[in-house]
Amino acid sequence: MSQFGACFASPRLAALGLSQLCLFAAALAPLDVGAKEPVMACEQLAHWHMPPEGIHLPTRGALVEEVSSSAPDEPDGNYCRINGVIQSVDPKAQSIHFRVNLPAQWNEKALHVGGGGYDGMLVDGLHVAFAGTRDEHPVASGYVTFGSDSGHQSQGFMDPEPGAFALNEEELENFGGAQLKKTHDVVLGLVQRYYGTAPKRIYFYGNSQGGHEGLIVAQRWPNDYDGVVSIHPAYDFTPLQLSGLHMGQVLYRSPEAWLSPGKVQLIASAVLRTCDKLDGLEDGVIANVSGCRGAFRLEALRCKGKDVDAGCLSDEQIKTARAFDEPTVFGFELQGGISSFPRWPLLTGAFTGGPSFFGLGLGPKPASPPAPTDAFLLFMADQLVRYMVVRNLSANSLEFDADKHVAELQRVSKLIDASDSNLDAFRSRGGKLLLLHGTVDMAIAPENTVAYYERLSKRYGREYLRAFTRFYMVPGFGHGDGAFQMRWDGLTALDEWVSAGKEPSNPITMDAARATAGRTRPLCEYPAWPQYIGHADPNAAASFRCSEHQSQ
Length: 552
Prior knowledge:
With about 550 residues, the chain is α/β, with parallel strands linked by helices. The protein has helices spanning about 5-10, 10-15, 20-30, 170-195, 210-220, 235-250, 260-275, 290-295, 315-325, 375-390, 405-415, 425-430, 445-460, 460-465, 490-500; strands at about 50, 60-70, 80-85, 95-105, 110-115, 145-150, 200-205, 225-230, 330-335, 340, 430-440, 470-475, 485, 510, 520, 530, 545. Among the domains are: about 1-30, no CATH class; about 30-200, no CATH class; about 240-415, no CATH class. The protein is built from 15 helices and 17 strands. It has a ten-stranded mixed beta sheet, with helices on both faces. Strands 13-14-15 form a three-stranded antiparallel beta sheet, with no helix packed on it. Helix 6 packs across helix 10 (about 375-390).
């Protein structure tokens, strides 16, 4: 718990109506953030143990397994490297492996770094996703950083069965969020031991599944974190996979319906020709997404005869493409009252930056079970269906009927999802949230984060929401790919907002795509987008203004 966490968590103070006094005191109290040094040598943490009662969720305690010091020439500076395990209650469940980096000159702040996909890879905490130059080495900047593998081990995106861990209930619960609290509590104990004091600020930073994890901690353990950076959040994990499953069922309903990589690029090229200029500059980036939606005509690609060449789309292929442009509607509600999932950006810029890892498969018929070479959305959805819902390894996910498994889906959704718009406790303790999504993301639909932001806006009102949340959309940015591959100092922006009260103002993002590296754009608050002002350097952010004008 950070500096004033105990004050906010105190039932006695809450009963006396003094929670606002806590907030006032927190705002006035000086942070005195300097370079604090350890009170012991790094090697003295070897075999450190935290008993189960030191962790607020059930475990059999935690143990440091490996301690080492950084090399003198490491770009992350001088720090103590800790690897350890949090032991599961179920002896058949895998342990949570964690990593902590303890700098020799500590700024009295800690950074929890999230994972990706179905997790399973140990997060080393040395880097944050899409960092700019100021955030490139957070440990060297003085942050204690930490992460985990979420309580199971896998090969990440190369693993053909990344969801197999979920057959064990404790491992599923850990993935669903419990591992975040367990890891947080263990690391705070280590920090207290090493420096003789707790962090004054604790932040969470994550992309994709890590962005989801950032919203989990803001909703479930709001007093543990002072701020969250959540990029491309898979916050409604269950609806996301149900939509991916639906897209897979549409895509693979027949060989004639499948969109090959060539047909995907045909669509992308046609969209770019129509929409690139709508923001005032033909630069390979579609910024005026709403204008593009009104301008592009998919039917212009329809084949006049049979589908015999790569320059047109058959009626079946058009039907498939149209399905991506429609929401997936469920006949039931999941956690947070979610009953649908938004459309995907296939007709508004997806794949305009070239082929993507998150494609629609390499062949018209998927493997059984689906493999990483099949449509990414189906592959990810298949893991949820077989390992979390039906728990039948031989099940064919393409034949899965969600209406027959509502209770199981709702159970999984309650364990995993973070769709709740109630951030009252996080807001009340002074927490800040930075949300960001790329407009051409085909791993997690960008309009899904728009939908969450709109629910927050409905709850708090747009202007009141800005007091603790900012949301940015980045044109041309995908799930790490795209025509504009964003780099941004989000951690610095968050820390300045939390620690110094400096609100994010006119942020700038830089492109890291090989062909266009170094160009900059303004990072516009949703629903605004960067519009070229004309007669100026097309590679400079100063040549753009944030516009909400959406006409064609």
